[in-house]
Recover the amino acids of this structure.
């Protein structure tokens, strides 16, 4: 065994911190999934919400719990474990920071959730101005962000400690990847922190009367696009650095993996305008520039697809496979740790193609704000990313709790992923189709005064409800497995798999860990893409909007 792989287990003290995050994440999944079920039922036109509960309140809970809480908490928990496993146990100080971050995030989540339940914040998970929420909602969001910085600092600190102890060496691949994702997150959240603290909170507190909607949305999307890569990169960590070990192969190329992560850092942030293509106050030349930068992420995405399939093929051939596709038969299809993320990968093919549609200015005009978009991110986030997260949990949770994934649970996990795939094919397929016919997203059921066009959408909304109900069964199954692995599975040792590079591979160039350089290029690209348009937006600003509350209170 090589010196760099001496820690093969996550220290129990770090494991506790990691599990704390995972408990919150899976609680969010259960509650958020229930809201999803209610949404599809309402949109089928055959069901109405009881007790004065409002559709948009349910939708806010769903978006916040699944888009923000599940993802961020899962990622913090997984990244904590990954760093502890590959760079070594956290120092007491770093672990303490990790706990402080956890509690700040949890208290912030509880504050925001309480305001949503009290109907003081029915502003959806994007909290777009001029919808105005209670100040406690924005303070809660701030605590979540600050908490994530504290935890992020603990992870960066642990990386720094490793670097000092191992001068001149490349950091372990998983730790390197966590560092890239954490740096991207910190740079990106500066935007959302700016709009919340400088615009939305003072406005909600009544200190200022009006808010500049376009500035606020621009700052939001400066954050909102890297947010989706913040979700995706932990899935890529599993694909690049963990799956090769599970299938009994080697990492295709350690250097290529690092380079692709660096490219994501560079090209994830200066591209937020692709969410604002129909926004009137932004000069089209800058939209064009940001769309070009957006398409740059196709490069690391295809690099990832290439290396995954190269790993699969090489591993299969090393096990004696012949012919063009014989290697596929040698893959461990009976192992949930592989098959569940693999189904997620497969979903990324149509998901990525849809993303190219969304980002193309002309095609965006067709799908903008339709339920097509919701169909798209239920493939990317709610299938590719979450199935990979489920696949990670199936070994990570027992590893952290000192238990075993039994044969029965492994089988149930594979069934779960197929249930998810079937449910999502119906739900997301129906969403894509209805969206092309003009059905809006974020809309409760309506016949729009008997409009013929709206009548066309109803069969798809029924299909969406069937798919959503199947998905809810998938939620129940994954909760059964999670609870089993956390509390009831037999005691034992479950491996935290970490792949190794091909024996003869040259070491990745040292410049990959020159953070001054990468941060410098990141900052230069951001300044290039945003400075002039932002000055333009501010100089030509209208008087701003008063707060709106479009929903009814209890
Ligand atoms: C039982 C499973 C699920 C069902 C039935 C479901 C259903 C839905 C539906 C029908 C909508 C759109 C409603 C509308 O625009 O009016 C929606 C929105 C959304 N879903 Fe899901 N979903 C599920 C799981 C997930 C998961 C696992 C995630 C993320 C990890 C997720 C994230 C989101 C987000 C971020 C929105 C956008 C909310 C908004 O537009 O404000 N969903 N979901
Ligand atoms: Cu985007």
């Amino acid at each position: 065994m090589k010196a760099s792989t001496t820690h093969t287990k996550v220290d129990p003290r770090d494991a506790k911190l990691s599990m704390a995050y995972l408990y919150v994440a899976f609680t969010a999944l259960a509650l958020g999934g229930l809201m999803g079920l209610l949404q599809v039922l309402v949109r089928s036109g055959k069901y109405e919400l009881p007790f004065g509960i409002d559709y948009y309140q349910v939708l806010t809970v769903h978006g916040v719990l699944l888009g923000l809480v599940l993802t961020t908490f899962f990622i913090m928990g997984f990244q904590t474990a990954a760093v502890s496993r590959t760079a070594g146990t956290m120092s007491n100080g770093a672990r303490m920071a990790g706990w402080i971050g956890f509690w700040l995030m949890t208290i912030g989540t509880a504050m925001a959730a309480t305001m949503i339940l009290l109907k003081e914040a029915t502003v959806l998970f994007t909290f777009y101005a001029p919808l105005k929420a209670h100040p406690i909602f924005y303070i809660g969001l701030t605590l979540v962000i600050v908490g994530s910085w504290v935890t992020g600092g603990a992870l960066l600190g642990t990386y720094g400690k490793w670097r000092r102890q191992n001068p001149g060496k490349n950091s372990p691949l998983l730790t390197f990847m966590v560092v890239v994702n954490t740096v991207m997150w910190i740079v990106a959240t500066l935007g959302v922190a700016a709009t919340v603290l400088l615009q939305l909170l003072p406005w909600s507190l009544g200190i200022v009367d009006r808010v500049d909607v376009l500035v606020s949305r621009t700052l939001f999307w400066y954050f909102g696009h890297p947010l989706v890569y913040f979700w995706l990169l932990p899935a890529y960590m599993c694909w690049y650095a963990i799956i090769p070990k599970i299938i009994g192969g080697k990492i295709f190329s350690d250097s290529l993996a690092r380079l692709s992560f660096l490219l994501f850092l560079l090209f994830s942030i200066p591209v937020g305008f692709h969410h604002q293509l129909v926004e009137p106050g932004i000069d089209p030349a800058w939209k064009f520039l940001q769309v070009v930068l957006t398409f740059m992420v196709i490069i690391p995405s295809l690099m990832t697809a290439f290396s995954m399939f190269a790993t699969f093929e090489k591993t299969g051939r090393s096990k004696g496979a012949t012919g063009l596709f014989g290697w596929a038969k040698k893959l461990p299809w009976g192992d949930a740790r592989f098959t569940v993320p693999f189904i997620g990968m497969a979903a990324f093919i149509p998901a990525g193609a849809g993303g190219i549609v969304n980002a193309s200015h002309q095609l965006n005009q067709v799908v903008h704000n339709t339920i097509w978009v919701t169909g798209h991110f239920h493939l990317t986030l709610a299938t590719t990313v979450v199935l990979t997260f489920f696949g990670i949990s199936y070994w990570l949770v027992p590893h952290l709790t000192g238990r075993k994934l039994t044969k029965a649970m492994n089988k149930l996990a594979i069934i779960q992923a197929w249930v998810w795939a079937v449910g999502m094919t119906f739900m997301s397929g129906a969403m894509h189709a209805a969206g092309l016919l003009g059905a809006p997203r974020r809309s409760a059921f309506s016949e729009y005064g008997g409009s013929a066009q709206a009548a066309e959408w109803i069969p798809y909304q029924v299909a969406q409800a069937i798919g959503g109900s199947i998905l809810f069964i998938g939620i129940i199954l994954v909760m059964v497995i999670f609870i089993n692995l956390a509390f009831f599975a037999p005691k034992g040792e479950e491996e935290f798999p970490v792949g190794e590079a091909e024996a003869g591979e040259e070491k990745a160039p040292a410049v990959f860990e020159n953070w001054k350089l990468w941060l410098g290029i990141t900052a230069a690209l951001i300044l290039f893409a945003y400075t002039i348009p932002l000055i333009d937006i501010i100089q030509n600003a209208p008087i701003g909007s008063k707060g709106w509350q479009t929903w009814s209170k209890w």
Notes: The mean pLDDT is 93. The two ends are 63 Å apart (CA to CA).
